[in-house]
C-alpha cells in the first residue's frame, strides 16, 4: 500500500545503471496510479467522518496523504529520469535510435524525443553561420587529422577533399581525414581502428 | 587575417573591440574553461561565438584556395578542427547546463531587470522554453492528469535541483583583487577578507568569486 509499486519503478531504474534504458512499465505505472486513486477515495471518505467528530482518523488521513505524496514523487522521478536517459541517447546515437531501444520506449516518450530532436536541431541550425554547427560532432578533442578506419560494409566509391576517390570495400583498411569519416563511422559503414 | 569583433548586439557593451585572431581564440578558451568549471550557467558571449564562426569560415575559404599538397594546409586544417572542437564543446556545455537547470534559469530570466544582460542567448532561450514546455506536457500527460485532483500540480522549480553554488573551484588570478570577503563555513568561524595576488592560484567556494569570474578578473582552471 505504501507506494511499493512506485518504489519498484525507481528501484528498477536505479539497478539499470550506466544510462541503460529498461522497458517502460505501463502496467506498474497504472497500478501505482490506481493505488493513488484508492488512497485518495478512502481519505475523502474519512475526511467527512472526521469532520463529524471522529478526530482519531486524522492521523490515518495524514499517513495516507504522505503515501500519496511519496507515490507522486517516485512516479515523477521515474519518468523524469527516463527522459534524461533518452536525451543522452540522442547524443550517443544521433537522431535515429536503434530499434531495440525504441522498443523500450512508450509512445509518449517517443513523442517527447521527437520534440527534443526538433528543438535541438533548431538550436544547432541557429548557431554558427549559414549551415549551423552540428554539436553532436567533435565530441572528443581531435588528436590527429587522419585516422585509420576499416570498412564494415561495401559502400562504393568515396571522394575525399583533394579530389581523389577511393573504393570502400568490405574489410579494407584506409587512412582517411577524420572529418570525412565521422558520419560514416556513426552510420556503421566504417570502424575506427585503434591500435 | 584580421578579425574585427564588431557589433556586440546592441545593449550593454557597445564599445567596438578589435581583436587579433589569437586574442579571439584566447577569449574563447577562457569562456570555455570558465563555463566548464563553474557550477552555474554563465553569461552568454554571442560576440565571441559570432567572431569565431566568421574566423572559421574565413580560414576554410583560405584553405580552399591554397595549393594542393602544401604542408601548411594540413597544419591549418588541424587548427580549424581544434577551434571547432572548443567552440562545439563550449556550446554543448552550456546546453547541458540549460537542460539540467532549466526551471531555475528560466525563472531568473523572468525576474531579470530591464537592461540587465541575459545569461541566455536568444537561441538558447528559445531552446530552454521549448524544453520546459515539452517536459511539462509530457509529465502532465503521462502521470499528473491521472493523479487525484490535489496532486495534479507540481512545480519543476522545486523538483529540479539547483546549481550548487557552494561547490569549490580552482582559479588563477588575472587581475589583483583586495578585500574579498569569505563567508564562514561553520558557525565558529568568522567572516574574513583575503587579497588575491596576480598569478596566484586558489581553491575557493564558487559563491565567493562568482562576480570575479563574471568580470573576467579570475580564470577558473
UniProtKB/TrEMBL annotation, chain A:
Judging by the UniProt lineage, the source's domain of life is Eukaryota
Which CDD domains does the record match to this protein? Answer: GINS_A_psf1 (cd11710), GINS_B_Psf1 (cd21696)
Q: Where is the protein situated, by its record's location annotation?
A: Chromosome; Nucleus
**Key words, A-Z:** Chromosome, DNA replication, Nucleus
Enumerate the spans annotated as GINS subunit domain. 47-127
Biological processes annotated in GO: DNA strand elongation involved in mitotic DNA replication
Start and end of every DNA replication complex GINS protein PSF1 C-terminal domain? 143-194
Q: What is its main location?
A: nucleus
List the GO cellular component terms.
Answer: GINS complex
* Family matches, as SUPFAM superfamilies: GINS helical bundle-like
Signal peptide positions (record): none
List the Pfam families. PSF1_C, Sld5
- Assembly information from the UniProt record: Component of the GINS complex.
Entry similarity comment = Belongs to the GINS1/PSF1 family.
- Task performed by this protein: Required for correct functioning of the GINS complex, a complex that plays an essential role in the initiation of DNA replication, and progression of DNA replication forks. GINS complex seems to bind preferentially to single-stranded DNA. Required for correct functioning of the GINS complex, a complex that plays an essential role in the initiation of DNA replication, and progression of DNA replication forks. GINS complex is a core component of CDC45-MCM-GINS (CMG) helicase, the molecular machine that unwinds template DNA during replication, and around which the replisome is built.
Protein name per its UniProtKB record: DNA replication complex GINS protein PSF1
Q: Which organism is it from?
A: Malurus cyaneus samueli
Automatic annotation (TrEMBL), chain B:
The source's domain of life comes to Eukaryota
Annotated DNA replication complex GINS protein SLD5 C-terminal domain ranges read 163-221
Kindly state which keywords UniProt assigns to this record, in alphabetical order: Chromosome, DNA replication, Nucleus
The primary site where this protein sits is nucleus
Instruction: Say if the entry is tagged with keyword Nucleus.
Output: yes
Residues in domain GINS subunit?
Answer: 71-142
> Where does it live in the cell?
Chromosome; Nucleus
UniProt KW Cell wall biogenesis/degradation keyword: no
Any single GO CC term annotated in Swiss-Prot or TrEMBL for this entry: GINS complex
A Gene Ontology annotation in the biological process aspect, one of them, is: double-strand break repair via break-induced replication
Question: What Pfam families has UniProt attached to this entry?
Answer: Sld5, SLD5_C
Q: Which SUPFAM superfamilies does this entry report, sorted A to Z?
A: GINS helical bundle-like, PriA/YqbF domain
Q: What does this protein do?
A: Required for initiation of chromosomal DNA replication. Core component of CDC45-MCM-GINS (CMG) helicase, the molecular machine that unwinds template DNA during replication, and around which the replisome is built.
Family, per entry: Belongs to the GINS4/SLD5 family.
Report what the protein is called: DNA replication complex GINS protein SLD5
Amino acid at each position: 500500500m505504501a507506494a511499493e509499486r512506485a518504489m519498484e519503478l525507481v528501484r528498477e531504474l536505479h539497478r539499470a545503471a550506466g544510462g541503460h534504458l529498461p522497458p517502460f512499465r505501463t502496467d506498474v505505472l497504472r497500478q501505482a496510479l490506481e493505488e493513488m486513486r484508492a488512497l485518495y477515495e478512502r481519505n475523502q471518505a474519512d475526511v467527512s467522518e472526521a469532520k463529524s467528530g471522529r478526530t482519531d482518523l486524522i492521523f490515518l488521513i495524514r499517513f495516507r496523504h504522505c503515501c500519496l505524496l511519496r507515490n507522486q514523487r517516485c512516479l515523477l522521478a521515474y519518468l523524469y529520469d527516463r527522459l534524461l536517459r533518452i536525451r543522452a541517447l540522442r547524443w550517443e546515437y544521433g537522431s535515429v535510435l536503434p530499434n531495440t531501444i525504441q522498443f523500450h520506449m512508450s509512445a509518449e516518450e517517443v513523442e517527447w524525443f521527437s520534440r527534443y530532436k526538433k528543438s535541438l536541431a533548431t538550436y544547432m541550425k541557429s548557431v554558427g553561420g549559414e549551415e549551423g554547427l552540428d554539436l553532436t560532432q567533435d565530441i572528443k578533442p581531435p588528436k590527429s587529422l587522419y585516422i585509420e578506419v576499416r570498412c564494415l560494409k561495401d559502400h562504393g566509391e568515396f571522394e575525399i577533399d583533394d579530389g581523389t576517390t577511393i573504393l570502400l570495400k568490405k574489410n579494407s583498411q584506409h587512412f582517411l581525414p577524420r572529418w570525412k569519416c565521422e558520419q560514416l563511422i556513426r552510420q556503421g559503414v566504417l570502424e575506427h581502428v585503434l591500435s | 587575417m584580421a578579425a574585427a569583433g564588431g557589433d556586440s548586439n546592441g545593449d550593454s557593451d557597445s564599445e567596438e573591440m578589435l581583436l587579433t585572431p589569437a586574442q579571439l581564440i584566447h577569449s574563447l578558451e577562457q569562456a570555455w574553461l570558465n563555463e566548464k568549471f563553474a557550477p552555474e550557467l554563465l553569461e552568454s558571449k554571442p560576440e565571441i561565438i559570432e567572431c569565431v564562426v566568421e574566423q572559421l569560415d574565413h580560414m576554410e575559404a583560405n584553405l580552399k584556395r591554397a595549393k594542393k599538397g602544401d604542408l601548411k594546409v594540413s597544419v591549418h586544417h588541424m587548427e580549424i578542427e581544434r577551434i571547432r572542437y572548443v567552440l562545439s564543446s563550449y556550446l554543448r556545455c552550456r546546453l547541458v547546463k540549460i537542460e539540467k537547470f532549466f526551471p531555475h534559469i528560466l525563472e531568473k530570466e523572468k525576474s531579470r531587470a530591464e537592461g540587465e544582460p541575459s545569461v541566455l542567448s536568444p537561441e538558447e532561450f528559445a531552446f530552454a522554453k521549448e524544453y520546459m514546455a515539452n517536459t511539462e506536457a509530457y509529465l502532465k500527460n503521462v502521470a499528473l492528469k491521472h493523479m487525484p485532483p490535489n496532486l495534479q500540480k507540481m512545480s519543476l522549480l522545486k523538483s529540479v535541483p539547483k546549481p550548487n553554488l557552494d561547490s569549490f573551484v580552482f582559479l588563477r588570478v588575472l587581475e589583483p583583487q583586495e578585500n574579498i570577503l569569505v563567508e564562514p563555513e561553520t558557525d565558529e568561524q568568522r567572516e574574513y577578507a583575503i587579497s588575491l595576488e596576480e598569478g596566484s592560484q586558489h581553491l575557493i567556494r564558487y559563491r565567493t568569486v562568482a562576480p570575479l569570474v563574471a568580470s573576467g578578473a579570475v580564470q577558473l582552471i
